[in-house]
Amino acid sequence: MAMKQSLDMRQGQSLVMTPQLQQAIKLLQLSNQELSEFIEAELERNPLLVKIEDEGAGAAAEGSDPKSREQLTLDERSGLGEARDQLDAPGEDVFEPGTGSDAALAADARGPSATTDWSGASNGPASEDFDYAANVSGDVTLHEHLHSQLSFAGLSAADRLIAARLIDEMDETGYLRAPLEDVAKALGADIANVEAVLTVCQGFDPTGVMARSVPECLALQLKDRGRLDPAMQAMLDNLHLVAKHDMKALMDVCGVDKADIQDMLLELRQLSPKPGAGFSSDTTVAVAPDVYVRELPNGMFAVELNSDNLPRVLMDKAYYAEVTALPMREKEKEFISECAASASWLVKSLDQRARTILKVASEIVRQQDGFFAHGVAHLRPLNLKQVADAI
């Protein structure tokens, strides 16, 4: 078969991602904290951008042209009113709902009294082959590490929601402080289901995490080592005797001799009563929601943007007019033109970001109205493609 070279011309269409479009998509993916940092960097770089702290400052920066300010400023009206006007149907942000451990143990976990006899315990996990806490990155928190394991836990969407709530209710040492009944009530879930999800979460790294008391934490670590026998369980149930160094009483309750008790105490010293101690304990920054979903008296749900999170920036047109009236070199003219284009693009992109967030949130509430009305038992399968197709 002969081979030859040829030059052919073909006509076709393809989607080109311009730098502006790529930046707009990146802007949409930023969290509130990341967006705030991005805007602060732009304010330092672009002399034509102004951050609005109040209405008076906005009017002074923009001048007396209310129409231009309406186009360039992302304020409560452009973020809320205009975003709703852009939705496909009037009032689509309102939907009708569809049909369709005791105090003593808690004190043990908080205080050192139960751990006095094994104060030399290490902070590592139960595994003898790998010390996770010694190898974890210093800036990763325990909550972040546990959330990262949810995707591999084989849980359903409803169970992942329960697991995420349980992780959020955990303190920095790795203990679950919220009663399971409260978690079940808050999520509209069955208490047995919450307990089953907790059992799965207690199998996460580091071993011993998500326990509700010191004895349970140590029991999880011993179970992982294959050393949770009846004698060891009896010792865990009587940690107050360990704290008192009452060897005779321990021998009686555990049913073993003194040599075995000493071996058991040695094993306890190798465990960690605070499995989360090796992770970052930086102060947690409160997460502010992008949108609020409120239930109305008539049983419907209203979706609205959190105006406190909307960045308010505009282009200082008065300063732009003043600068462009001055004699400038060619490079200076190019710089000012680039700053003006960048400022205009940023304000419009922020406005579009707010509109997109409201559209997406509205569609999620519309499709998950049963969840908002009745709890996790009514959570429906939903992916990003379905939301994108709908809006």
List the helices and strands and how they pair.
Layout: H1 19-29, H2 32-45, E1 49-51, H3 55-62, H4 66-72, H5 76-86, E2 94-95, H6 103-110, H7 132-135, H8 142-148, H9 157-168, H10 180-187, H11 191-201, H12 214-225, H13 230-236, H14 239-243, H15 247-254, H16 258-269, E3 291-295, E4 301-305, E5 313-315, H17 317-324, H18 330-367, H19 369-374, H20 384-390
Antiparallel strand pairs: 1-5, 2-4, 3-4
Q: Helix count?
A: 20
Provide the gyration radius in Å: 30 Å
Going across the biggest sheet, name each strand in turn: 2-4-3
Which spans have pLDDT < 50 for at least 5 consecutive residues?
A: 56-60, 62-128
Mean pLDDT: 77
**What is the end-to-end distance?**
53 Å
Please, how many domains?
2
Q: What is the number of E strands?
A: 5
Beta strand %: under 5%
Secondary-structure content class: mainly alpha
The helix fraction, in percent, is: 40-55%
Shape: elongated
Strand-and-helix sequence, N→C?
A: HHEHHHEHHHHHHHHHHHEEEHHHH
Oligomeric state of this protein: single chain
Strand count, sense and barrel status of the largest sheet are: 3 strands, antiparallel
Structure commentary:
- With 391 residues, this protein is mainly alpha-helical.
- Helices cover 52% and strands 5% of the residues.
- It is built from 20 helices and five strands.
- The protein has a three-stranded antiparallel β-sheet with strand order 2-4-3, with helices on one face. A two-stranded antiparallel ribbon has the order 1-5.
- Helix 9 packs across helix 11 and helix 10 (180-187) packs across helix 11.
- The longest helix is centred in the last third of the chain and has 38 residues, at 330-367.
